[in-house]
Amino acid sequence: MENIDWGLVDWSRAQFALTAMYHWIFVPLTLGLSFLIAIMETIYVKTGNPAWKKTTKFWMTLFGINFAIGVATGIILEFEFGTNWSNYSWFVGDIFGAPLAIEGIMAFFMESTFIAIMFFGWQKVSKKVHLTSTWLVAIGSNLSALWILAANGWMQNPTGMQFNPDTVRNEMNNFWEVLFNPAAINKFLHTITSAYVLASIFVIGVSAWFLIKKRNTDFAKKSMIIASVFGFFSILYTIGTGDGSAKVVAKYQPMKLAAIEGLYEGSTEADLVAFGFVGGEKTKPEVSGIKLPGMLSWLSFGDSKKFVPGIKDLVEGNPDQGILSYNERIEKGKLSIDALAEYKNAMKSGDTENAEIALTVFKDNFEHFGYGYYFGKDPNLLVPNVKLSFYSFHIMVILGAFFLLFFILTFLYSFKNKFQGKNWLLWLSIWTIPLVYIAQQTGWIVAEVGRQPWVIQDLMPNIAAVSQIDKSTVQITFFLFFAVFTALLIAEFKIMFTQIKKAKDINTNENIGGTN
Amino acid sequence: MFENLSHLALQEYWWVIVSLLGALLVFLLFVQGGQTLIYRLGKTEGEQNILVNALGRKWEFTFTTLVTFGGAFFASFPLFYSTSFGGAYWVWMAILFAFILQAVSYEYRKKPNNFLGTKTFDAFLFINGLLATVLLGAAVSTFFTGSAFSVDKMNLLNLSGNKMPIISSWETPFHGLEAVWTTAHLAFLQNLALGLAVFFLSRVLALLYFQRIIDNTEIINRTKKCLKLNTVLFLVFFLFWLIRLMLIDGFAVNPDTKEVFMEPNKYLHNLLERPVILAILLIGVVGVLLGLFNSIIKNKDNGIWFAGVGTVLTVLALFFIAGFNNTAFYPSTFGDLQSSLTIENSSSSHFTLTAMSYVSLLVPFVLAYIIYAWRKMDKTKITEEEINSDSHSY
User: Fold this and answer.
1) Residues B179-191: tens digit of each pLDDT
2) CB-based contacts of A329: which residues, under 8 Å, 6+ apart?
3) Interchain proximity B389–A123, CB inside 8 Å
């Protein structure tokens, strides 16, 4: 396989990672804040209290600043499937394109239409129409998340399709299986609830700053109560769906599970690493730290007696557990690819008999199809970056547990109205904002680095998914994106901070808090 | 309902949907055209703010239509999506960069401490207006003049050759930019002409839109002056492109063997053999001219509606000429004509097109709520006072 341009593959991955990570700085705040705004405006419409209108409008301004850059970074992602992953776009476009189109028709138009009313319609439509528009913006943005995350979940567990040897691609045969496949459902729920957690922490943190400055205190308290309740229930759901995600990973992506736990040799009653460090070789990790006996088996399969395969079991095979080695899978994958080529040639020459034989061989080995692209290569290339996966996963989990404690505290203190004066808690609230952004990014690293090299699990590795362009071309666009996104990010930060700081002058206690 | 349709009928249905999205996109590019006129029409900061806010309440429709156009093309004709986007890399990347710049510029331009300054964000809006229109126009023109690519699905099964296992290859190192200097059959003239026609059309539509939505005598007077010149330039480039399109050889498909071959005056034949398309084109052109007549001669402010509907119908007809009547809509000019894409060889499966067709039933609802929101928001004309009284402005 000297024909593989590894530099092109790596730079194409880097560009996608860069755009996705930038995009995900902004999206979770959009997803969560849209609902928080809708809740606040609902209280305003129900009570008629203008303080709630001002509260809504303040958060709406921050929402708008964040939304714009989320949109800017989002458009690239959709088109990058075509520009940088063109083979992928053909191989599974029949399935993957549909969610993207539905996202546009169903969600993006809803979002972009009603956002205009939400921002500019206060004096042009009735209160109820305005409130409905705000809710539709929230629903629209969350619907868009549903479709793209369903698509992502499908890549990690391809279902609802079959390979068509005549068109040389996968084709959808069950729409509902694609949408409701377990990986997609868990991915969607885990991701959006974690976005609600981020938005809640953002609102609490910014409100805490106002309380420290003793400005807009009534507004800050109101915001905190809403965000604490929303955040508390969201983190419970995030943790619950995180557990669900782990079970799905254990079932469909055993190598990812082994990588995030740094598990080299599998076992029954496998231990869960609560806190630890990874040493050893790149594909032969050694983990030291605090381990919880049997917990990995239990969390993965609901049974501590179950066997959890390690990297060694998957690469070298484990006949006792019925696990084929990667070399065996590579052989079978090559058999499948060659058989498909034979089928195509036989069909072209009208040799239906040999075509049938080749087709049978192809189908019998299809589940290993993607491994064939690693023929003649080191099977260890099929192991993802263990250290990155391990640390990302554990940072995410530890932060998740911390957020639960954090919300319990904010929930209690804001309800008892005892936040003010508790400077340690106020500062903690502010410093939790960067932590929740770290948790979001590490979550995506777990999901995306952990599944490498698979673009579509077991069927298409990244080396067979890229577009045929020069590495240098991708390098240029990578650095262009990097420069543009970084400049815009700085602009966003500066504008956001200024808006928050400025709020102390605009919204004094009297005019924002009121007496209600 | 849809499952009983033949695969070809579904492919044609989806070509209509994609064409409609493309046509709506070209109409909505009036936002881009307007962005190139902010400093031409607005001499004071107040006037410039009026213009930016008039466009700023619509920019997301254009943006969303572009994204949906891309998504719908991906879902219905994935081989086009993979071949064109992965191949004409630089063209699409330039368009995307232009849209990144636009997305933040409205929201950030007047915000305090915005790092780059109002002038920079306004420059971003200008760049977006220029690049998006010219490049999208030139890209659509290649639907008729062709591009240098090849498609071989067997590459995916080639584990031993010296090529990557990639099915679509762009055969020039310029990845699409060559569309504006390819001399064969004077393709560059044709592509540039449509690019510039779309650019001037977007400005014409923007001027008509401003006349409808803005209540400011100074600005309106300037739009009237500006409209005449842009109309002339639009007509020159568009008519050159259209007349030449009728005269050039086109990429025809043999309906029996599916073989692609060159046919003299193919696109003229498409119009004559499909009178419905001809009728749509003529009504569209008349609509645009009527809009201009209403504005320039009759001094009315409703030109945007006639010209808008006319633009949608005209572009719709052009997409129909490209894809229907046994025509290759994305032709390959690199050696092997058989790499050319048709609505039959590049489409999704019967199952996916059926599923997506059910989703397409949502389109009328989407259009209905867009019209509702648009009417509500445009009930009153935009003035400086109205912008200043609003809590949210650009």
Assistant:
1) 989 888 899 999 9
2) A368, A371
3) yes
